[in-house]
């Protein structure tokens, strides 16, 4: 079997360091699938990247058939099967949201063009670098014609995993006993973590999460704000961001895209909207999706009922994403890349 070519950008960074080992050791694509890892970062990080390559070699992993460090897009995107786009411009003190967006538009416009020029048309992309949904939208726009928009996604799996864990803690079960939480919208503090359609296995029976938790005020209050603000709380405690759980979530996302979701289960993934639930078409929006492991195609779960509370929360995150998209498109026109 020819090795899968897997690109990780920002591979000299914190999240990259925790992602590469899971790809290399078979956790993401299976113990029988050889991988060739391509690690991209900016030229100033070339030495750090080389250190990561040396460590991966020293792990002596039978699934890792090759690993290379690159600092140019052409070499990075050539013939790749999967791309983890982690590298992004970090927010610096005093930086306006618009400046951050403009800096990232430049990066993701250029990477979208590189995908169109060098990658396989079947390449599947997860964007982790923030603002992840809008970065994915821009990359998809510039890869259009070669890589279809539905091959682009942004990560909300960390928020999804956080929501599973919060329901489990409150219901007094283990996380494996909880399924089908949903993250709607943007990977930002406007996201809507929703337990209305979640199920919990308790005492051998499957019950809905609201019954298992028995505290509606929690599920419509602290549960939502805890998931929305978790990243900030971890930074406050660790003085570093949540790189380990972010990397694990990115790997879960691509694992499920590659192998498919379990029967009766859905996961949250930010994908281009097809108009489902009234979300404007094309917006990269987090939905509940199921994935067919044979075709590797995702489908947005249809027909879920939304009460007024959910509709109002979804409207807020939709508005934020539309504004981000419009600002990003404006920045695209102004960017010379
Ligand atoms: P991290 O590896 O910690 O984070 C990388 C990106 O992931 C950031 O945009 C970060 O957003 C985002 N992110 C998403 N979810 C999370 C989460 N739960 N916790 C933390 N971050 C999250 O950043 P580092 O600074 O350690 O590394 C970034 C690397 O990217 C650097 O090596 C840099 O040189 C590189 N880079 C590469 C580029 C390229 O290859 N072309 C372009 C730009 C940078 P947030 O900022 O909001 O925390």
TrEMBL record:
Whether NAD counts among this entry's keywords is yes
GO MF terms, alphabetically ordered? L-malate dehydrogenase (NAD+) activity
Q: Which UniProt keywords are listed?
A: NAD, Oxidoreductase, Tricarboxylic acid cycle
Using the record's annotation, list all stretches that form the Lactate/malate dehydrogenase N-terminal domain.
Answer: 5-150
- The residues listed in the UniProt record as binding substrate, with positions renumbered to this chain, are 91, 97, 130, 162
Q: Enumerate the residues binding NAD(+).
A: 10-16, 41, 104, 128-130
EC assignment: the record states 1.1.1.37
Quote any Pfam family the record assigns: Ldh_1_N
PROSITE patterns, per database record: MDH
- Report the sequence similarity comment from the record: Belongs to the LDH/MDH superfamily. MDH type 2 family.
Spell out the protein name for this chain.
Malate dehydrogenase
From which organism does this entry originate?
Answer: Caenorhabditis auriculariae
């Amino acid at each position: 079997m020819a090795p899968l070519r897997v690109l990780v950008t920002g591979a000299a960074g914190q999240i990259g360091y925790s992602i590469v080992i899971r790809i290399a050791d078979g956790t993401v694509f299976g113990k029988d699938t050889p991988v060739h890892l391509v690690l991209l970062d900016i030229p100033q990080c070339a030495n750090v990247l080389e250190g990561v390559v040396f460590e991966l070699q020293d792990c002596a992993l039978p699934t890792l058939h090759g690993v290379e460090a690159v600092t140019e897009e052409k070499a990075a995107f050539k013939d790749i099967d999967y791309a983890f786009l982690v590298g992004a411009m970090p927010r610096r003190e005093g930086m306006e949201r618009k400046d951050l967006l403009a800096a990232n538009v430049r990066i993701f416009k250029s990477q979208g063009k590189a995908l169109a020029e060098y990658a396989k048309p079947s390449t599947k992309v997860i964007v982790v670098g923030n603002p992840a949904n809008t970065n994915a939208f821009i990359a998809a726009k510039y890869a259009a014609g070669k890589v279809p928009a539905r091959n682009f996604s942004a990560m909300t799996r960390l928020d999804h995993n956080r929501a599973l864990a919060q329901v489990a803690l409150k219901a007094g079960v283990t996380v494996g006993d909880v399924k089908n939480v949903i993250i709607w919208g943007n990977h930002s503090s406007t996201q809507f973590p929703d337990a209305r359609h979640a199920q919990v296995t308790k005492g051998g029976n499957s019950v809905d999460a609201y019954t298992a938790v028995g505290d509606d005020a929690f599920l419509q209050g602290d549960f939502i704000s805890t998931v929305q603000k978790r990243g900030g709380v971890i930074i406050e405690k660790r003085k570093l961001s949540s790189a380990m759980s972010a990397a694990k979530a990115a790997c879960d996302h691509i694992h499920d895209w590659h192998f498919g979701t379990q029967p009766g289960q859905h996961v949250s993934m930010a994908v281009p909207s097809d108009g489902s639930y009234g979300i404007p078409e094309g917006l990269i929006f987090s939905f509940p999706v199921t994935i067919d492991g044979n075709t590797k195609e995702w489908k947005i779960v249809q027909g879920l009922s939304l009460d007024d509370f959910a509709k109002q929360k979804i409207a807020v995150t939709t508005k934020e994403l539309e504004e981000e998209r419009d600002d990003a498109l404006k920045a695209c026109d102004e960017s010379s890349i």
